[in-house]
């Protein structure tokens, strides 16, 4: 039982050349033919757990490009995965060796392992080191109060030594993320962002230890630990903005059926999906998911294609129907002749579309990451220049020159720069969370502020994805009660909705006997000696309407149409209206029938809409808008939206969405109300303004503070205090969002 938008002939096979592959729709046929004719390249995936900044992206991608046979390389910084397209002769060991020469540890990716395990371990490790640094900083500050209050000679030395006992192990332990990263950079012959940070920590600790040994008046253990704490805080905040995301391609792969029931010589056998060959006959029972792409050779049923195409209603499947892996067989057993299986299936190729889109989008980096490429050389030049100048100026006073050099390194440490984005994201995320939105990506707010076009999916996004009868009261009571009796015997979405509405209206089912379900057509039975049917219009002897409907025939007269409409999601009208008021272009694109899409578009005032869109067509639409210079926000919930969500400038999905869609999106709508989407766009603009203000604060801080350190007016302790003050200022400015 399903909606029939027009006449059909179950015995007429669909065209043999109809592709079930969404990926093929997105590319011109000539390109597909060229790809089939060309030698296949291998895609190798490497895990690079220690990659963390924009410099890592360029370094690793250049290192891979230098390997003979490699055609392209993309580092997904969010997932720390390196995707490499290369000739079949290139092995994972070759790429791992190239990554090692660049200073990075790499491992061949095992798709069977959960990517979140390593991410969670790194987060716990950073949090533990941050906690140790905070505890030590508080204790050393208490000891420093006594020194600042006038402790002299042996008392002062005692407090300095106690501070050393606390500070040195803390710096060694908590500073390991920076030391290890700096060492890898130096071994690879480059100056990473963590090199000056590590030098500052080592110099501050070394000078403090030397001053304590020489009974000096000043030691800077508090500066070293304070510096470690704020650097770790920035690193942890940055980690948290990345750690939530997981690969949507993995979620799509999870839908692949690992085994299939194959018919060979009339005998059924269950085999692994890798053993299924093109041409094999595969049996799929009701309730099962299609394990392969194929053509139906026997049986009739209905298919749930909502995850792949967005169609809200099941569709008829009979002999000659082309089916895709991932679709669900609803009502009757089917036998398929396999046309593609495993890595060649449409579902797997859709996962490839998502993976490519994810990798492409990671080329977008925040302002802080782009600034990092210029930071390290400048800091080293300033520090060494200060050391050389004061060695010459003081006639070789090493102690004084090293103090100034260390102060320059400390005062220019990128705490404020590193906190500029994460602090705002954390503050904005808290505000949006209270409105029902969860920010998953650190740069999502920056990208959302740039959006000028919003593309909505229909079913499950602007609507609730649940049909509701619209004309129950228009039918005679006896007809509604006959329909109630038939509908109660089926689990079809329309039948379920019809039975629930009849029950709520206080109707009682008529006595209908010999009820049976005819897969692909509907339900029939005997009522008062007459055969009655509830299902497709043609099966009931009538003509289908251009709306979602099921039809009742009682043996006489024209079949009665029970029409349905999808319930509008709360706040959908307010969200569309508010986004229009912000000057954004609104587009509706759906895999559903034209009548249903047009009705919803008219109701919401959306003039630009598309119906019957395949998954690759949605992704292609987003790509075309992007190529035209538009910044696209994609809002969707289904598997058919996943590639579009991953390739859009920024994306949002409801919490009720498929896992793959939620994973591919940057922001998750936690409640049913859609109105917070417009709030997110407004808050994103405010967040971008705060981020720019934070960069301005960081810039002015360096303009004022660095000259003071260069001329010797700032000790390492004063430098650490100034650095901390800039970090606190940036954090307080971010809190203004609340």
From TrEMBL:
E.C. designation(s): 3.6.3.3
InterPro entries from the UniProt entry: ATPase_P-typ_cyto_dom_N, ATPase_P-typ_P_site, ATPase_P-typ_TM_dom_sf, ATPase_P-typ_transduc_dom_A_sf, ATPase_P-type_domA, HAD-like_sf, HAD_sf, HMA_dom
CDD domains: HMA
An annotated GO cellular component: plasma membrane
Cellular compartments annotated: Cell membrane
GO biological process annotation, one example: copper ion homeostasis
Membership in a protein family: Belongs to the cation transport ATPase (P-type) (TC 3.A.3) family. Type IB subfamily.
Protein name from the UniProt record: Cadmium-translocating P-type ATPase
UniProt source species: Pseudotabrizicola algicola
Gene name per UniProt: cadA
């Amino acid at each position: 039982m399903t909606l029939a938008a027009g006449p059909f002939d179950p015995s007429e096979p669909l065209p043999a050349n109809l592709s079930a592959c969404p990926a093929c729709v997105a590319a011109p046929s000539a390109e597909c033919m060229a790809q089939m004719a060309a030698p296949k390249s291998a895609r190798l995936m490497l895990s690079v757990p220690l990659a963390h900044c924009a410099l890592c992206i360029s370094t690793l991608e250049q290192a891979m490009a230098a390997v003979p046979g490699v055609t392209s390389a993309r580092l997904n910084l969010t997932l720390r995965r390196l995707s490499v397209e290369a000739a079949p002769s290139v092995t994972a060991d070759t790429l791992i060796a190239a990554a090692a020469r660049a200073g990075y540890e790499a491992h061949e990716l095992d798709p069977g392992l959960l990517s979140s395990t390593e991410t969670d371990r790194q987060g716990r490790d950073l949090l533990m080191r941050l906690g140790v640094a905070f505890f030590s900083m508080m204790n050393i500050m208490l000891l420093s109060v006594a020194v600042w209050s006038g402790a002299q000679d042996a008392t002062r030395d005692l407090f300095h030594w106690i501070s050393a006992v606390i500070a040195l192990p803390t710096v060694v332990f908590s500073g390991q993320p920076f030391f290890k990263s700096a060492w890898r950079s130096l071994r690879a012959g480059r100056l990473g962002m963590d090199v000056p940070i590590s030098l500052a920590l080592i110099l501050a600790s070394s000078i403090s230890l030397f001053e304590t040994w020489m009974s000096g008046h000043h030691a800077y253990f508090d500066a070293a630990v304070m510096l470690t704490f704020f650097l770790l805080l920035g690193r942890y905040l940055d980690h948290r903005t990345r750690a939530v995301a997981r690969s949507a391609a993995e979620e799509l792969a999870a839908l692949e059926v690992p085994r299939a029931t194959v018919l060979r010589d009339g005998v059924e056998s269950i085999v692994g999906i890798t053993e299924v060959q093109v041409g094999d006959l595969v049996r799929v029972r009701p309730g099962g998911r299609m394990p392969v792409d194929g053509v139906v050779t026997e049986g009739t049923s209905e298919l749930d294609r909502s995850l792949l195409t967005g169609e809200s209603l099941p569709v008829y499947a009979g002999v000659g129907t082309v089916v895709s892996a991932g679709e669900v067989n609803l009502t009757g057993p089917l036998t398929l002749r396999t046309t593609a299986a495993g890595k060649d299936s449409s579902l797997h190729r859709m996962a490839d579309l998502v993976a490519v889109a994810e990798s492409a989008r990671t080329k977008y980096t925040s302002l802080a990451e782009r600034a990092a490429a210029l930071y390290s050389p400048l800091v080293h030049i300033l520090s060494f220049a200060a050391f050389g100048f004061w060695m010459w100026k003081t006639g070789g006073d090493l102690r004084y020159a090293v103090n100034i050099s260390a102060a320059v390194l400390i005062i220019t440490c990128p705490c404020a720069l590193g906190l500029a984005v994460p602090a705002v994201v954390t503050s904005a995320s808290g505000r949006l969370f209270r409105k029902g939105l969860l920010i998953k990506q650190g740069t999502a707010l920056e990208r959302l502020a740039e959006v000028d076009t919003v593309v909505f999916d229909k079913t499950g996004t602007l609507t609730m994805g649940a049909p509701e009868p619209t004309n129950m009261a228009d039918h005679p009571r006896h007809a509604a009660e006959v329909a109630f009796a038939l509908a109660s015997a089926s689990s079809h979405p329309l039948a379920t909705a019809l039975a629930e509405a009849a029950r709520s209206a206080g109707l009682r089912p008529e006595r209908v006997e010999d009820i049976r379900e005819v897969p692909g057509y509907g339900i029939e039975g005997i009522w008062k000696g007459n055969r009655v049917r509830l299902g497709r219009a043609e099966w009931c002897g009538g003509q289908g309407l251009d709306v979602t409907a099921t039809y009742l025939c009682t043996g006489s007269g024209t079949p009665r149409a029970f029409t349905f409409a999808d319930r509008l999601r709360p706040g959908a009208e307010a969200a569309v209206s508010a986004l229009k008021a912000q000057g954004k272009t609104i587009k509706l694109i759906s895999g559903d029938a034209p009548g249903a899409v047009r009705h919803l578009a008219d109701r919401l005032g959306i003039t630009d809409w598309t119906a019957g869109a395949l998954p690759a067509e949605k992704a292609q639409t987003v790509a075309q808008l992007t190529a035209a210079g538009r910044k696209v926000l994609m809002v969707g919930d289904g598997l058919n939206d996943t590639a579009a969500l991953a390739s859009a400038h920024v994306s949002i999905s409801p919490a009720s969405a498929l896992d793959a869609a939620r994973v591919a999106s940057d922001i998750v709508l936690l409640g049913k109300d859609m109105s917070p989407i417009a709030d997110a766009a407004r808050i994103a603009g405010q967040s971008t303004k705060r981020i720019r203000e934070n960069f301005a604060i960081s810039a002015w801080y360096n303009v004022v503070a660095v000259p003071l350190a260069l001329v010797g007016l700032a000790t390492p302790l004063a430098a650490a205090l100034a650095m901390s003050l800039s970090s606190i200022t940036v954090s307080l400015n971010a809190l203004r969002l609340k």
